[in-house]
Structures are given as structure tokens and as C-alpha cells.
Amino acid sequence: MAAAESNLDKPKSDAESPKLSELLDSGWKALDEVDSTNEPTGSHPIQVKIKRAILQLEEASRMATQLDLFSRNEELEEIATADLKYLLLPALLGALTMKQVNLAQRLEQVRKARVYFWDFLKRSQDYDIMKFELPKPAGEPSDEAADEAAEELSPTTNTSDLIAMAVRRQAKIERYKQKKETEAKLSEIKAAVDSGQAEDEIVRDFYLLNVRRWVSIAVEEIESIDQEIEILKRMEGLKKNAAQPSRAPHHRPPMKPFILTKDAVQARVFGAGYPSLPTMTVDDWYEQHRKQGILPDQGIPRSAADLDSEEREKEEKERQIENDDEEALQKARDWDNWKDTHRRGYGNRKNMG
């Protein structure tokens, strides 16, 4: 494989140099094989094939430029049928460049692919091959990027922004439909063109349909490339920030406590702005209340009238028992019997059922 790669850069003699059509067909065929293979795109054989196809298409582009095949002063009908397929050279180069796998040079690769796609779209627009909106050249912010920046600046979405988004969405739907219709037509006439027996009109339609198909692909590719470029730029910025030495944390001196008032005089007059400070400890408060005998565990002092009434009731009960008062004795016995068969608190449900 290393020998195969080294042979790519060796110049060939004039007798061995392939023709322009052979270079285009070989590069185009390699792209189709890469798209249809089940082998990973990042594998070594596929990358060698992609590199070889790119060199072939670059050589074909130089030959087409030397032959001056296309001019802005001519119409589409003036281009020979055999030369129509060379309009695809930048699009094929862009597609192959996007399939290269090199993370260290990814930003450079996608920018290069964007230049290829934009050059293809510009030439297609010059010949009025298909109606589409040409993206901005490299270096200028796209409409979607400008809309995203405007959305970040404005908290609300304007009606004009919604209309623009709807227009772009509709354009994508139209491009998708056109692409599917073009692919269906291509599948119908491809066999006749490959056989070499198709008429000139069919061959011309075949190449024009391919150009229109690649116009839809190129527009979508440029949109995705613009998004990828923004991501790659941010990744580079994060790597640069990570590579910079981290600064030592700055330690502030501890802050002194302060009173949230204008001055001490105002604090003494109006207070500190929060509840008063405590005047005694919890232990002092407990000792003070213990001496006064008003703690819960010390009981509540009773009045003299309460004590006299309780003593009279006890004396009355004792007197009735001593005098063998039948009614009092029966009541006492009933109460004792009831307590024997009912636990304490029985019946005291307080309307709870």
C-alpha cells in the first residue's frame, strides 16, 4: 500500500498520460465505488483510492482549464454534449475531499471542499442549468448564521424570521423532490447511455440530469460544511484555552463584619435592622424561672380557694363512708367494678367514633 501511495505522485510520460475523459471517468467511478462499498471510509485502502481519484480529477481540471472548455459568454446550448460532463469536475472533487479522514487537517479539508462546491454552483448558475439560491462565498456569513446571530441578540423571534425559516424549509423540500425526480429519470436512461448506443439527445439529457442532481447535493453540502466549520473553530478555541497555563486563584483577604446601617449612631437610635440581641443566656433564663417556681416540671401554683374546695370534697366523701351511706357506698362499688372491666380512657373518644 505504501508503494501504491508513492506511485501516485510520480509523473507519467506523455505516452502514458491518460486522456481527459479517462481521468474524469476513473475519478467518477472511484467515487461511486466508495459510496457503495461496505468497507469503512477511514480504512487505508479506501483512503488510498480517494487520494488517487482526487489526483486524477485535479489533473482533469487542469486539462479542462487549458482547453478553455467553458466560458461565461456562451449559453448552455453552445456547449457540446461530450463536454457537459466536465461541468461535474468541481462537484466530484468536493465530494471526494469531504470523504478524506484526517482530524488534524479537517478544517482545511472542509474549506477546500466548500470552494469546490461553490465553484460548481456558480458555473451552474452562470449557465442557468437550474433555479436555486447561490450560497455566500467562503468567508462571508451565510443567511442561517446571520439568523442565528440575530436570534441570540433578540430575545423574541420576529415574524420576518419565521417567514425566512419557512421559505428555507420549503426550498429544501423542493430540492429534495427535484433530486428524487432526477434520480428516477437517470435510472431509466443510464443503461442506454452505458451501452454506447444512445442518441445524442439522450446522452445530453443524461449529463444535464447529473448536473442538476449534483446542484441539489452541493447546496446541501455547503449548508452542512458551514455548520461543521463553526464547530471546528470552537473546538480549536477550546484546545487553545486548555493549552494555556491555568492562573493561580486569587485569594481575597477575609472581610470584616459590618452593621447594615449608615453609622453607629443610627444603629443605636433605630436599631440594627434585625431583632434585638439576647440579654441573657439560656441557663440564666432557666435559673430565673426556677427560682420563681413557674417551670413546667414544678407545677402551677394553686390558689387557696381551689385547695379549700378539694379538702371539703374529701372530707364529705370520708364522712359518707363512715356513716354507712348506702347510696355513696353503692356508687363507690359501681365505680370500682366499672374500672375493673374497662381500661383507663375507655369511651373517651371525643366524637371520633
Provide tags for this entry.
353 residues, mainly alpha, 63% helix
Roughly how much helix do the residues carry, as a percent range? Answer: 55-70%
Overall morphology: elongated
The class by helix and strand makeup works out as mainly alpha
Beta strand count:
0
The topology string of helices and strands comes to: HHHHHHHHHHHH
Q: What characterizes the major β-sheet?
A: none
Total helical segments = 12
Q: Which helices and strands occur, and which strands form pairs?
A:
Layout: H1 2-8, H2 20-36, H3 44-67, H4 89-98, H5 106-126, H6 143-153, H7 159-195, H8 200-243, H9 264-270, H10 282-292, H11 304-322, H12 326-341
Brief description of this entry?
This protein has helices at residues 2-8, 20-36, 44-67, 89-98, 106-126, 143-153, 159-195, 200-243, 264-270, 282-292, 304-322, 326-341.
Give an overview of the whole structure:
- This protein has 353 residues and is mainly alpha-helical.
- The protein has twelve helices and no strands.
- Residues 1-15 and 149-156 have low confidence and may be disordered.
- It has helices spanning 2-8, 20-36, 44-67, 89-98, 106-126, 143-153, 159-195, 200-243, 264-270, 282-292, 304-322, 326-341.
